[in-house]
Amino acid sequence: MDLALAPETLARWQFGITTVYHFLFVPLTISLAALTAGLQTAWVRTEKEKYLRATKFWGKLFLINIAMGVVTGIVQEFQFGMNWSDYSRFVGDVFGAPLAFESLIAFFFESTFIGLWIFGWDRLPKKIHLACIWMVSIGTILSAYFILAANSWMQHPVGYRINEEKGRAELTDFWAVLTQNTALSQAFHTLSAAFLTGGAFMVGIAAFHLFRKKHVTVMKTSLRLGLVTVVIAGLLTAVSGDVLGKVMFKQQPMKMAAAEALWDGEAPAPFSVFAYGDVDEGHNKVAIEIPGLLSFLANDDFTSHVPGINDVNKAEQEKYGPGDYRPNIPVAYWGFRWMIGFGMASFAIGLAGLWLTRKKFLLPQHLRVGDDEVPHLVLFRDKALSPRFSRLYWLVAIWTLGFPLIANSWGWIFTEMGRQPWVVYGVLQTRDAVSPGVSQAEVLTSMIVFTALYAVLAVVEVKLLVKYVKSGPPELTEADLNPPTKIGGDSRDADKPMAFSY
Fold first, then answer.
1. Helix, strand, or coil here: 339?
2. Would you state the pLDDT for residue 495?
3. In 409-421, which positions are buried (b, 16+ CB within 10 angstroms) versus exposed (e)?
4. Tens digits of per-residue pLDDT, 465-491?
5. Count of CB atoms within 10 A of residue 107's CB?
6. Which among 93, 219, 292, 502 is least buried, having the fewest CB atoms inside 10 angstroms?
7. What are the residues facing 422 on neighbouring strands?
8. What is the pLDDT of residues 72-120, one digit of tens each?
9. 486, 125 contact by CB (below 8 A)
10. pTM for the whole thing?
């Protein structure tokens, strides 16, 4: 059978397509829930209309993303039984535990409070209604953590034993699974990247409206919040990436050697800026490197030894038996760089925007919007930056909303493909995890059908987002501005229409 169309290869493609697509919505859901909660908190505390309009606008986009995220995430879990039944049978006792907690939180905790938040605008007191969106935000973070704990167990299995009689892994320490350093560092990095994504999303959309000189008051506030989020989250993403990288150097030296195209161990080891090599021969033909930096990134020591791809491959052959334990080197190498490049580009644009829009450098310039004259945000100062540069920044800021999404996708591609040929590192290989009774035709058919369905959903998602982004923040109603002071309101409000405007 052609290896490119083998059930294992097709199953990996299907799961990869599903996962990358699903994870476009996850970081936006996590970050937009918290940012929306922050804006609503500002409204409750100050009663300024701009915060309420911003809350409703970003809350609407949050709801679109979480709906799509839930739909696409369910398909992933079905694939464990469809295409990966041997994996599920072998590790289900361990892997299923954090997934069960995630399901309970996502489908009961989050969904309950989302419902209360959606339909409670004119039925719940402001502070109780605010508590609902904060509970949703907490739920999204907890839900993500349990998923990441399950994935971290695949990267570094702990808290289990192999039952030789039953031929399966069994959970012995659930707390170890949840709190191992792999899970903690991966959660730190993933959540930081999620807020970088949400901040850039907010910056891009706010810049779109400000570039068109629309909804200036609300979007100026949103822009500043987005820029602050991008800068803080960008710094945390870099710090957490360094922490996670050090963990991976110890736990999965092959993955990190592949990420640097380091074929033979060196002391000190250089960081690769650009490399082109021969995978079959196991060496680089072209290499642009920074001496000693990789040693520092791996061990906080510029002179330490870092094992290379050939060294680790030989060591794993001795430990696990004959075979090629190298991942796809070009994918690991370039995936690592695309992840860092697009992520840090967003941070740099956010930092520049925060500098350009700081208050003492703003020139108040009034323009007419409808019947009102409002201050317009100007991104240049006299004798400092030209209007052309200002226009260029707006355009760059709009496009940067997609940069973290690209970085997230390549980050997960690197994380999962860099672990190959293992599905559970050191315990179960990918070739032994596929469903034995599923044919090539069945996997190919399901992959094509789901990919086509996801393409349709992508069109629906984009159209919904574009529609509501262009419409801008909603106008407020009397019920919006005067919510009830007790649950359900009073009898005088019974016949009033709901203020829910989504």
1. helix
2. 43
3. bbbbbbbbbbbbe
4. 889 988 888 877 665 566 666 665 543
5. 13
6. 502
7. 429
8. 777 777 788 888 889 989 998 898 889 888 888 777 888 889 999 999 8
9. yes
10. 0.88
Give alpha helix (H) positions in 156-252: 174-179, 181-211, 216-251
Tell which residue, 346, 479, 353, has the closest CA to residue 27.
Answer: 346
For residue 273, what pLDDT is reported?
Answer: 84
Q: What contacts 26, CB < 8 A, 6 or more positions away?
A: 69, 73, 144, 194
Q: Is 500 exposed, middle or buried, given 0-12, 13-18 or 19+ CB atoms closer than 10 A?
A: middle
CB atoms within 10 A of CB 72: 23
Q: Round to whole Å and give the CA distance between 22 and 69.
A: 6
**Could you give the CA distance from residue 175 to residue 427 in angstroms, rounded to a whole number?**
20
Question: Residue 362: pLDDT band by 50, 70, 90 thresholds?
Answer: very low
3-state secondary structure of 274: strand
Q: Over 60: is that where the pLDDT of 375 sits?
A: no
Mean pLDDT of 446-455: 87
DSSP output for 285-322 = EEEEEETTHHHHHHHS-TT--B--HHHHHHHHHHHH-S
Dihedral pair phi/psi, residue 84, rounded to 5°: -130, 45
The pLDDT value given to residue 101? 87
* The token pair that represents 43 in the structure block: 């409204």
**What is the maximal distance between C-alpha atoms in the chain?**
81
**What's the token pair of residue 492?**
């005088």
Rg (CA), the chain: 25
The pair of structure tokens assigned to 317 is 């052959």
CA distance 56 to 405: 23
Neighbour count for residue 306 (Cβ, 10 Å): 22
Average pLDDT over residues 147-169: 92
Which of 221-233 are b and which e, b meaning 16 or more Cβ less than 10 Å from the residue's Cβ?
A: bbbbbbbbbbbbb
Give me the torsion for CA of 354, 359, 363, 365, rounded to 10°.
90
- Give the model's confidence band at 444: pLDDT under 50 very low, under 70 low, under 90 confident, else very high: confident
Handedness of CA 388, 390, 393, 395 (dihedral sign): negative
Cα–Cα dist 458/22, whole Å? 11
DSSP for 90-120, please give it.
HHHHHHHHHHHHHHHIIIIIIHHHHHHHHH-
Q: Which residues contact 328 (CB under 8 A, 6 or more apart)?
A: 417, 420
